[in-house]
Write a structure and sequence with these properties.
The chain is α/β, with parallel strands linked by helices. It folds into two domains: about 10-245, Metallo-dependent phosphatases (Purple Acid Phosphatase, chain A, domain 2, 4-Layer Sandwich), CATH 3.60.21; about 250-370, no CATH class. The protein is built from nine helices and 16 strands. It has helices at about 30-55, 75-85, 185-190, 265-270, 275-280, 300-310, 325-335, 335-345, 355-370; strands at about 10-15, 60-65, 90-95, 115-120, 125-130, 135-140, 165-170, 195-200, 205, 210, 230-235, 240-245, 250-260, 285-295, 315-320, 320-325. A six-stranded mixed β-sheet has the order 4-3-2-1-11-12, with no helix packed on it. Helix 3 links the parallel strand 7 (about 165-170) and strand 8. The structure holds manganese (II) ion. Manganese (II) ion binds near residues 99 and 199. InterPro entries: Calcineurin-like_PHP, DNA_Repair-Maintenance_Comp, Metallo-depent_PP-like, Mre11_N.
């Protein structure tokens, strides 16, 4: 192009870390819910492709970990291939990550991909030219499950009239990472119009042209908060990409503090009705409960089952302590180790929550020893 700038804007969706096929072995999901969750991830993936059609997306970038190699079948990969084939106008560019590395035996090599799908198969910096839309996508794929080398050291672009995008799966946060350390400073030196990263499951804009897309559906309680895709427009002059929430569910971690005045029903209510019904069935919870409860009550199986029936999935971590009548226990045990312990603890600040909890926990164990004796 002579003197005329390429003002063409392309519409882009950046996703990755989808982990299709995941069996959720690292979670406490029951087998039925694991199966359901696996289907939900497929669903969300298909919704991303539907959105490509609806929004007339030119380019879908997949930044690694599209699927879980260990659990994926040829049927599964054919399902992806046939859905890509029906995309109305979107071109798909894929690099692989540590969960779906591409090598001789890889499922990627067992199907014939349609013309709109471009898989970067090299394990070294290379490019794919999408000539009709003036885009060059640079990047590389993983060929094994670990990669200590920074394979993006010697990077460049060769035609600034094109839109230049870098697509890669790696770790910008840890230069000693086993998951391909990426040197951000190095990336920033090259004038990419957009850098689409994968590997970190929480979406993050490093700056307005460099982003981790995160997993569109969170996979465990390490991935709380909103999840989705990154979408927008890119031209040689301007990059406008934003996060779009897209997940069916969120993982939620909560703290709830109980007190000694609560009865059985109060305890259930304070846990269940801290969330709306819609949220309880939509989201997945890990609840940390603490505080002091009536010494005759406990968070037993009945309580837990009643709570569980009102959530799609909830894990409860019980850190409550029983409300002891310290004075009475002291009088009864003045001359034994329980009495010594109470005396010792009373010398400290019992208004302090941590000290009070230490007192209760100590008592709990000493008193239960006494019962055994
Ligand atoms: Mn991943």
């Amino acid at each position: 192009m002579t003197g005329v700038e390429n003002m063409q804007k392309i519409k882009v969706i950046h996703t990755g870390d989808i982990h299709l096929g995941l069996e959720f072995k690292n979670t406490n999901f029951d087998p039925n819910f694991s199966r359901q969750r696996r289907l939900e991830i497929w669903n969300t993936f298909e919704k991303i492709l539907d959105r490509c059609d609806e929004k007339e997306i030119d380019l879908l970038l997949i930044a690694g970990d599209l699927f879980e190699e260990d659990y994926f079948t040829i049927g599964d990969i054919k399902r992806i291939e046939s859905r890509f084939r029906t995309l109305k106008m979107t071109k798909v560019v894929i690099v692989t990550g540590n969960h779906d590395p591409i090598n001789k035996g890889s499922l990627y090599n067992l199907v014939e991909w349609p013309n709109n799908v471009y898989i970067i198969k090299e394990n070294s910096y290379t490019k794919i030219e999408l000539e009709d839309i003036n885009i060059t996508v640079w990047g590389l794929s993983w060929d094994k499950k670990e990669e200590k080398r920074n394979l993006l050291e010697d990077i460049h672009i060769d035609n600034t009239e094109n839109i230049n995008i870098l697509l890669a799966h790696g770790d910008i946060y840890n230069k000693n990472s086993n998951y391909m350390p990426i040197d951000l400073y190095n990336i920033k030196k090259v004038k990419f119009n957009y850098v689409a990263l994968g590997h970190i499951h929480k979406h993050e804009f490093i700056d307005d042209k460099i982003a981790y897309c995160g997993s569109p559906e969170a996979l465990d309680f390490g991935e709380t908060g909103s999840h989705g895709i990154i979408e927008g427009e890119i031209s040689t002059r301007e990059t406008r990409m934003t996060f779009v929430p897209f997940s069916e569910r969120q993982f939620v971690q909560k703290e709830i503090t109980l007190n000694e005045n609560m009865n059985y029903q109060d305890i259930i209510n304070s846990i269940v009705y801290s969330e709306s019904e819609e949220e309880r069935f939509k989201n997945l919870y890990k609840l940390n409960i603490s505080g002091v409860i009536d010494k005759d009550l406990s968070i037993n199986e009945d309580v837990i089952n009643e709570i569980k029936s009102m959530f799609t999935h909830i894990e409860i971590i019980d850190n409550t302590v029983p409300d002891y009548d310290i004075e009475t226990i002291y009088k009864e045990n003045e001359n034994n180790i329980i009495g010594y312990f109470i005396r010792e603890m009373k010398g400290k600040d019992l208004e302090n929550k941590v000290i009070r909890r230490a007192l209760y926990l100590g008592l709990e164990s000493l008193l239960s020893e006494k019962v055994k004796l």
